[in-house]
């Protein structure tokens, strides 16, 4: 991976930029070879403590040392944005036409052309400047965060606000946001490929190293910015930030250069545009040669040729596409979908399969423990969410917890094997850490009712943590070893009950600890199944006493055996009401929704059926069964499987690849580290903004800030709508240009005078192409867009009768204008005939903008209120055109003559003919389409 990509991935541009190198080198608190310094001395040298910095100290250090962000290149200057507006070849063609007009003494054309160029530049500058600001805002919204300890409390802050002396709290899935010395490490493994190129994760420990010149890869007690936590948990003291990190020092040596090849849609448009330019040049050359052969004045031919070239090529299209995409991205951000990679906007419109996690995406995302089963009794837990307030009931009666030793034993394990923290902000309880652990912690608080509302501050002191074996998707359990008050060590284990039971030989009862018989296992398994069928997520808790000393072998295999099974905790995460509606919308849109979860199969299937993802006849494919299915067989069966349960990271990636092997465009959602490979492998990777780990967010194309499945469906709808708007805008522009070319070509071939002057073509290009096209590009999304089948990813933008409609529209528009022109030549002057043809063409192109809003819907089925700006623009320009025939000054600029109001009304009526014919064609096509339609399954 290149350093530029590494910088973009792990320390993206965000928030305030780092100060210049001259400032970032003036760090007041620094340590030479911090891996060699004892921790106590390190705290002293950095003016920090084990409770972290105070908020006041951190603010002062941030002000003096600068933000923890890599140095960015200078932002695009206003002058560069202005200069960029004059890079287009067509702009220089326009300027050339202005110069020719000036040389010939035609100052009216000169002034009008220059005014049009300046106006285009102003519009383009405004859009680019606005886009720059919008992108900066989005970057700030997606800035990574970090957990730090300040004033003795664990808080979440933007990574940019980290300073030297902060204490980082790290766990699996976190990105390391600064260089830091490890204080404590439990089974910690760090992926350092961003710095060292080593693909294997590196084991870390907190002991002081002796070698001052230890190479980067051997600094086992250090973690570095730009790396990620693959396993375990740790606390670490920040010793370097921003450009003083190892990553920052390398960044100084490399020139930051980047290039953009454009998005797939932009590449298609560029390719289509090049074909259009060459086709237009061929037509212009042909017309020039015909005029030359007929003896037309050379200068008049040059001006006509230049004007036709301008008319033939929609030079405003790139700006319109940019505006459509930018507004689409901003609309998505308002709907809680942050686009991190622009191509995602386009590919979203092609999504045919959404592989989604369950927890927090299809459900509300706040687990609540509803049942505690221990000592052959089942207790009910009241309360909602993470608020540690509620009651413990037995047979609907409150329980006196101090009299229930077994319940206290279970609650101790729920707190002891836990890394989450509950915090109250503005009256709302939130969890810092894993949501499941937060729910278990809240339940434990409810058991210890005298401590309800806060985490027991004495727990860490009474039962200090000695070692930790973090949860991973293969073991499906986590383990923490704590020293009890009597001095003995106890391994506390929480995990999937079916897996955990295999490691248990005894179980906790009201009569004490007894051997675990097969009958007891069956009873616990049955209890687990019953809870699962109630759509509860079930975790088991167990422990093992280890004596006074830590065993020499602290591996999971050695510790997690001969366990004492204590009880079950059943949690509910109810489906979101809006998720059911969103799934139904996916079905109508031809999008398949597949649930992939690590939950129990019964829980997964119950939720899937409730949401409409699975039917009553569908079954669940669990991880062990998936292991026995070959890649080819999985690809064949993928379309028949709606729910996967108990899956690992490898399983998720296999499922995504199986769908892609069938030609599907796959969106994959996730929040955990084990989702990252599948998110990378999917066409659209979607991360959860609230619960997602930083690794997952940085790997994703899109971040859902509300962790809501309905937001994903809304983003797909936006993607489809954006593509539809761009396509219909392109068709509208090209159809107008085609009409102008056909009119001019026909008149030249017939030897008639030019029906349009250069100023007429420029006016049409401005008022009938630019303004209405911009309104079409920002049109409201068709509410029926989600009733269509997904668009193939490789579909050409001119597919599905695009060219046929374009040429028919151009032919009709040119036809009515030519009929008016030819008739007027026979009955009046050339100037009057040209004025009428010009006005007819303007009216016809403006009116057909209403029909261009949909390729399939009739005009009267599209509410005008959904795009009032288009109506205002059309009627204002029609009024301006009529006024031009009654105002001598404007008529002089446009080189038109007087037209009576009756003539204008007559021409307006005639100009409706192309629109009416196109609407009739639309009706005929709809009937033909309905007669051959195949229902979406």
Automatic annotation (TrEMBL):
User: A Pfam family for this UniProt protein?
Assistant: Cation_ATPase_C
Compartments reported by the entry: Cell membrane
- Where is it chiefly localized? membrane
The residue ranges flagged as biased composition, category Basic and acidic residues, are 1-11
Write down the SUPFAM superfamilies for this protein, in alphabetical order: Calcium ATPase, transduction domain A (SSF81653), Calcium ATPase, transmembrane domain M (SSF81665), HAD-like (SSF56784), Metal cation-transporting ATPase, ATP-binding domain N (SSF81660)
The organism encoding this protein is Cellvibrio fibrivorans
Name this protein carries in UniProt: Ca2+-transporting ATPase
Q: Which family does it belong to?
A: Belongs to the cation transport ATPase (P-type) (TC 3.A.3) family. Type IIA subfamily.
Region entry Disordered: which residue ranges?
1-24
Q: What keyword terms does UniProt attach to this protein?
A: ATP-binding, Cell membrane, Membrane, Nucleotide-binding, Translocase, Transmembrane, Transmembrane helix
Describe its membrane topology.
Multi-pass membrane protein
Gene3D superfamilies found in the cross-reference section: Calcium-transporting ATPase, cytoplasmic domain N, Calcium-transporting ATPase, cytoplasmic transduction domain A, Calcium-transporting ATPase, transmembrane domain, HAD superfamily/HAD-like
Q: Which domain of life is it from?
A: Bacteria
What PANTHER family does its record include? CATION TRANSPORTING ATPASE, SODIUM/POTASSIUM-TRANSPORTING ATPASE SUBUNIT ALPHA
């Amino acid at each position: 991976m290149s350093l530029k990509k590494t910088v973009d991935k792990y320390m993206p541009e965000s928030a305030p930029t780092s100060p210049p190198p001259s400032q970032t080198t003036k760090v007041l608190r620094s340590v030479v070879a911090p891996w060699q310094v004892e921790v106590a001395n390190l705290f002293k040298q950095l003016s920090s403590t084990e409770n972290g910095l105070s908020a006041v100290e951190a603010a002062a250090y941030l002000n003096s040392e600068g933000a923890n962000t890599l140095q960015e290149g200078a932002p695009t200057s206003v002058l560069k944005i202005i200069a960029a507006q004059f890079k287009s070849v067509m702009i220089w063609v326009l300027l050339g036409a202005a110069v020719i007009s000036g040389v010939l003494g035609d100052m009216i054309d000169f002034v009008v052309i220059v005014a049009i160029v300046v106006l285009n530049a102003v519009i383009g500058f405004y859009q680019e400047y606005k886009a720059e600001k919008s992108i900066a805002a989005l970057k700030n919204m997606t800035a990574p965060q970090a957990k730090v300890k300040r004033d003795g409390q664990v808080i979440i802050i933007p990574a940019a606000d980290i300073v030297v002396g902060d204490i980082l709290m790290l766990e699996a899935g976190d990105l390391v946001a600064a260089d830091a010395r490890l204080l404590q490490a439990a089974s910690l493994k760090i992926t350092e490929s961003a710095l060292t190129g080593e693909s294997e994760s590196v084991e870390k420990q907190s002991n002081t190293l002796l070698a001052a010149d230890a190479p980067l890869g051997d600094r086992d007690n250090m973690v570095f910015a730009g790396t990620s936590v693959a396993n375990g948990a740790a606390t670490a003291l920040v010793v370097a930030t921003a450009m003083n990190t190892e990553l920052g020092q390398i960044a100084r040596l490399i020139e930051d250069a980047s290039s953009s090849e454009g998005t797939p849609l932009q590449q298609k448009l560029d390719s289509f545009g090049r074909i259009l330019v060459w086709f237009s040049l061929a037509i212009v050359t042909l017309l020039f040669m015909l005029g030359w052969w007929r003896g037309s004045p050379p200068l008049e031919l040059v001006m006509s040729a230049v004007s036709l070239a301008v008319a033939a090529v929609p030079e405003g299209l790139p700006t319109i596409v940019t505006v459509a995409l930018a507004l689409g991205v901003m609309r998505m951000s308002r709907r809680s979908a942050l686009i991190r990679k622009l191509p995602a906007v386009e590919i979203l419109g092609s999504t045919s399969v959404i592989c989604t996690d369950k927890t927090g995406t299809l459900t509300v995302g706040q687990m609540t423990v509803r049942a505690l089963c221990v000592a052959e009794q089942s207790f009910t837990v009241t309360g909602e969410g993470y608020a540690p307030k509620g009651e413990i009931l037995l047979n609907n009666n409150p329980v006196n917890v101090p009299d229930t030793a077994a319940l206290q034993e279970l609650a101790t394990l729920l707190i002891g094997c836990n890394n989450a923290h509950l915090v109250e902000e503005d009256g709302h309880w939130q969890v810092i850490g894993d949501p499941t652990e937060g729910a278990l912690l809240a339940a434990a608080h409810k058991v210890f009712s005298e401590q309800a509302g806060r985490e027991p501050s004495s727990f860490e002191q009474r039962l200090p943590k000695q070692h930790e074996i973090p949860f991973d998707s293969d073991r499906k359990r986590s383990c923490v070893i704590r020293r009890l008050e009597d001095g003995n060590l106890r391994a506390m284990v929480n995990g999937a009950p079916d897996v955990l039971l295999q490691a248990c030989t005894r179980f906790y009862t009201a009569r004490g600890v007894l051997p675990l018989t097969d009958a007891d296992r069956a009873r616990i398994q049955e209890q687990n199944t019953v809870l699962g069928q109630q759509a509860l997520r079930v975790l088991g808790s167990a422990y093992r006493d280890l004596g006074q000393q830590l065993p020499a072998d602290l591996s999971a295999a050695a510790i997690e055996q001969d366990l004492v099974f204590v009880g079950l905790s059943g949690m509910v995460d109810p489906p979101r009401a809006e998720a059911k509606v969103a799934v139904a919308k996916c079905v109508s849109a031809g999008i398949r929704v597949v649930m992939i979860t690590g939950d129990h199969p019964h829980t997964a299937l119950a939720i899937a059926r409730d949401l409409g993802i699975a039917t009553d006849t569908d079954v669940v494919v669990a991880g062990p069964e998936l292991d026995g299915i070959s890649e080819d067989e999985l690809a064949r069966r993928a379309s028949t499987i709606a729910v996967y349960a108990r899956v690992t990271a490898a399983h998720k990636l296999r499922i995504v690849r199986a769908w892609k092997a069938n030609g599907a465009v796959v969106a994959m959602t996730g929040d955990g580290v084990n989702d990252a490979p599948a998110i990378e492998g999917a066409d659209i990777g979607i991360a959860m903004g609230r619960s997602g780990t930083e690794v997952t967010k940085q790997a994703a194309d899109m971040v859902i800030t509300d962790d809501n499945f309905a937001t994903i469906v809304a983003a797909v709808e936006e993607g489809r709508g954006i593509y539809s708007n761009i396509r219909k805008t392109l068709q509208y522009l090209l159809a107008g240009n085609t009409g102008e070319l056909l009119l001019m070509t026909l008149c030249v071939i017939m030897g008639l005078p030019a029906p349009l002057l250069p100023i007429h073509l420029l006016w049409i290009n401005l008022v009938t192409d630019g303004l209405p096209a911009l309104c079409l590009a920002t049109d409201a999304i068709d509410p029926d867009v989600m009733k269509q089948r997904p668009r193939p990813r490789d579909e050409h933008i001119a597919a599905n009768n695009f060219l046929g409609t374009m040429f028919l529209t151009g032919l009709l528009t040119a036809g009515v204008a030519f009929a008016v022109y030819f008739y007027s030549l026979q009955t009046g002057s050339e100037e009057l005939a040209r004025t009428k043809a010009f006005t007819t063409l303007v009216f016809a192109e403006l009116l057909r903008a209403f029909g261009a809003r949909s390729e399939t819907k009739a005009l009267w089925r599209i509410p005008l209120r959904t795009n009032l700006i288009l109506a205002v623009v059309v009627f204002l320009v029609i009024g301006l055109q009529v006024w031009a025939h009654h105002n001598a000054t404007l008529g002089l600029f446009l080189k038109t003559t007087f037209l009576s109001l009756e003539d204008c009304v007559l021409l307006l009526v005639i100009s409706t003919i192309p629109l009416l014919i196109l609407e009739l064609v639309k009706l005929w096509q709809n009937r033909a389409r309905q007669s051959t339609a195949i229902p979406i399954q």
